[in-house]
């Protein structure tokens, strides 16, 4: 699953709305059966795993949190291999 280079900051997101990026992230997570990452981040950040009725700010937090969680999981998987 490609989100751009995680070390480049937000370059891959420039010009795209938060709603569009959130929708794209949700589609990718569903496609790869990784919605647990979004629910985990929502639980940690907002105290509720529900992804319904999020504000624009919450969506941005969720996007960033999911990216970090996926990168960390990927790094741990590579370290154990």
Please describe what this structure looks like.
- There is one protein chain.
- By secondary structure, the protein is mostly helical.
- Helix content is 63%, strand content 0%.
- The protein is built from three helices and no strands.
- The longest helix is centred in the C-terminal third of the chain and has 25 residues.
- The radius of gyration is 13 Å and the shape is globular.
- The model has no long low-confidence stretch (mean pLDDT 85).
Give the SSE layout.
Elements: H1 18-31, H2 35-46, H3 56-80
Helix pairs in contact: 1-3, 2-3
Note the overall shape.
Answer: globular
Hey, roughly how much beta strand do the residues contain? Answer: under 5%
Pattern of helices and strands: HHH
Derived structural class: mainly alpha
Number of helical elements: 3
Main sheet record: none
Number of strands: 0
What is the average of the pLDDT values? 85
Oligomer category: single chain
Which regions have little confidence, pLDDT < 50, spanning 5+ residues?
none
- Helical fraction equals 55-70%
Report how far apart the termini are: 19 Å
> Radius of gyration in whole Å, from Cα?
13 Å
Please tag this protein with its features.
single chain; 81 residues; mainly alpha; 3 helices; 63% helix; 0% strand
